[in-house]
């Protein structure tokens, strides 16, 4: 081969390799849930979203693709691989404010909010997030009592831990956004300690149940008792008014009789005696006798009054008949 031909072949091969290198390092693809950071001579330059993009070849520019649009999860206190759950005691075990040991498992939901901070301010973002979460949990639970942490205080502790974790991410500018933090379990270690605290929890729940039942009974009985008391009061008031009115009527009646009695005591006295006798002897028969001699003189007033009544009735009937006869003759 001629020297010129060999030279052309070498130049062509070098150009082909250069083109392949430029093509492989200058074009990159970003998926739907990803975003890319472009570094120019190692310094952050810009971000690109999903699609096919061009950059200057390395070492001028390089691209770092991160799942910035993807919501991610990490677990604290355990690791889960499919259906297999492996406890991590060095993360879950911690001491409470009353110097008891408690096991706390949590799940943190997060995503990347600032790619520049995420890539440059922390070397291992996931490990930093795991450590900061564990520190936040220990800080909050370390100030609480065990029985509060495993019963009524779980929700409050969860909110405090989330706020402290967000505060740490903002303080160190990690570029990580904390979406949520949920405790899976806050409980004492297994064995006798767990059984003892479970018994305490059951006793507390039974206590609350009895208190609620007592309050329900109280709310049921007190209104009824108040109603019954009000009814008795109203009945007593009605009886009081009735007796007062009756007493006032009796006084008025007595005063009326007394005023007439003062005018003519004898007549009033006789009338009262007769009215009293009529009340106590409504069907009595009256006899008038004279026992001053050996012979008893008897005056049958009842029969005389009866005969007088019969005679009066007969005379009235006769007078009516005569009037009718006279009236007929006139016609």
From TrEMBL:
Where is it localised?
A: Membrane
User: Entry's Pfam families?
Assistant: Band_7 (PF01145)
List the keywords (alphabetical). Hydrolase, Protease
- Keyword Protein biosynthesis tagged: no
- What GO biological process terms are annotated to this protein in UniProt? proteolysis
Per the database record, which ranges form the Band domain? 25-201
The Swiss-Prot or TrEMBL record annotates one GO molecular function as:
peptidase activity
Q: Does the keyword Hydrolase apply?
A: yes
| One GO CC term, this protein | membrane
Q: Where is this region: Disordered?
A: 309-331
Tell me the InterPro entries matching this sequence: Band_7, Band_7/SPFH_dom_sf, HflK
Main localization (coarse): membrane
Task: Please describe the quaternary structure of this protein.
Answer: HflC and HflK may interact to form a multimeric complex.
What the protein does comes down to: HflC and HflK could encode or regulate a protease.
Q: Which PANTHER family match?
A: MODULATOR OF FTSH PROTEASE HFLC (PTHR42911), PROHIBITIN FAMILY PROTEIN (PTHR42911:SF2)
Say which family it is in.
Belongs to the band 7/mec-2 family. HflK subfamily.
Protein name per its UniProtKB record: Protein HflK
* Encoding gene per record: hflK
């Amino acid at each position: 081969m001629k020297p010129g031909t060999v030279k052309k072949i070498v130049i062509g091969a070098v150009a082909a390799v250069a083109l392949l290198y430029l093509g492989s390092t200058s074009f990159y693809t970003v998926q739907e849930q990803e975003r890319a950071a472009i570094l120019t001579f190692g310094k952050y330059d810009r971000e690109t979203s999903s699609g096919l993009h061009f950059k200057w070849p390395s070492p001028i520019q390089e691209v770092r693709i991160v799942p910035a649009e993807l919501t991610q999860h990490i677990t604290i206190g355990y690791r889960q691989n499919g259906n297999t759950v492996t406890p991590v005691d060095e993360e879950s075990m911690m001491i409470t404010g009353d110097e008891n040991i408690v096991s706390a498992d949590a799940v943190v939901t997060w995503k990347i909010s600032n790619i520049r901070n995420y890539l440059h301010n922390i070397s291992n973002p996931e490990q930093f997030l795991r450590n900061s979460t564990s520190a936040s949990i220990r800080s909050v639970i370390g100030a609480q009592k065990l029985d509060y942490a495993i019963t009524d205080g779980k929700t409050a502790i969860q909110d405090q831990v989330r706020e402290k974790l967000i505060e740490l991410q903002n303080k160190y500018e990690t570029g990580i956004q904390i979406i949520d933090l949920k405790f899976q379990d806050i409980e004492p270690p297994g064995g006798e300690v767990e059984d003892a605290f479970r018994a305490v929890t059951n006793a507390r729940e039974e206590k609350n149940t009895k208190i609620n039942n007592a309050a329900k009974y109280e709310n049921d009985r007190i209104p009824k008792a108040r109603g019954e008391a009000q009814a008795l009061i109203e009945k007593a008031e009605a009886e009081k008014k009735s007796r007062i009115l009756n007493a006032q009527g009796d006084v008025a009646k007595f005063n009326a009789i007394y005023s007439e009695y003062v005018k003519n005591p004898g007549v009033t006295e006789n009338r009262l005696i007769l009215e009293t006798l009529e009340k106590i002897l409504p069907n009595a028969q009256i006899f008038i006798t004279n026992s001053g001699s050996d012979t008893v003189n008897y005056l049958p007033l009842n029969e005389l009054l009866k005969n007088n009544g019969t005679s009066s009735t007969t005379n009235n009937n006769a007078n009516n008949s005569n009037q009718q006869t006279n009236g007929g003759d006139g016609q």
